[in-house]
Specification:
single chain, Alpha-Beta Plaits, 2 domains, four-stranded antiparallel beta sheet, 6 helices, 36% helix
Length: 191
């Protein structure tokens, strides 16, 4: 997409920084009094999501943005999968540029860790490209205090109860399904 940004000259460096962050290629620069018109070529995926909001906040509302279709170009894109306990969640899979895959995967996994409720077993949240895991977080298991009813006495009894609980959680992890709440999908889509 060919984008034209009209902005006062004092915000030029901030606009260039934003354009670089959004993989924009500089095309031309034209001074119009105290304002400047800068043309960039952007990938459509970069300007669709939050480019306009960032542009307005950087320029304190003074910038305007106009764009038109330029041409089609090849790009190095990868499919970023989200796995919960090794099972892919198709609704959370996205296509991202290879350069931004790690940051996107890391932020996605961290957000999911915050919104997926704790289960009776440990939940592994992973972001992967193909078979290669690039980011991982773990939602810890809820634990019941199984040693509460053991007062003093033999330590081996407590150890036995904790081992039994550990084996039960292992079995539960193999059988159990992780339910992803609706808020998790919404929070991921907002980012």
């Amino acid at each position: 997409m060919r984008g034209s940004v009209f902005v006062p000259t004092e915000f030029m460096t901030a606009i260039y920084k934003l354009a670089q962050e959004k993989r924009g290629e500089h095309r031309s620069l034209e001074y119009l009094g105290k304002r400047v018109r800068i043309q960039f070529d952007f990938p459509l995926s970069e300007i669709v999501i939050d480019f306009y909001d960032k542009l307005k906040s950087i320029s304190k509302g003074y910038a305007s943005f106009d764009y038109e279709f330029a041409d089609l170009r090849e790009s190095d894109l990868v499919k970023l999968d989200v796995l919960l306990n090794g099972d892919p969640v198709d609704a959370l899979s996205t296509i991202v540029h290879r350069d931004k895959a790690y940051e996107k995967g890391k932020s996605l996994v961290e957000k999911l860790r915050g919104v997926i409720p704790r289960q009776m077993f440990e939940v592994a949240i992973q972001a992967a490209i193909g078979s290669r895991v690039i980011a991982r977080e773990t939602v810890k298991a809820m634990g019941k205090n199984v040693t509460a009813k053991c007062y003093g006495g033999d330590i081996t009894r407590k150890r036995k109860l904790l081992e039994k609980q550990k084996e039960g959680k292992k079995r539960m992890k193999q059988v159990g399904k992780v339910e992803v709440p609706q808020e998790a999908f919404l929070s991921v889509l907002k980012s």
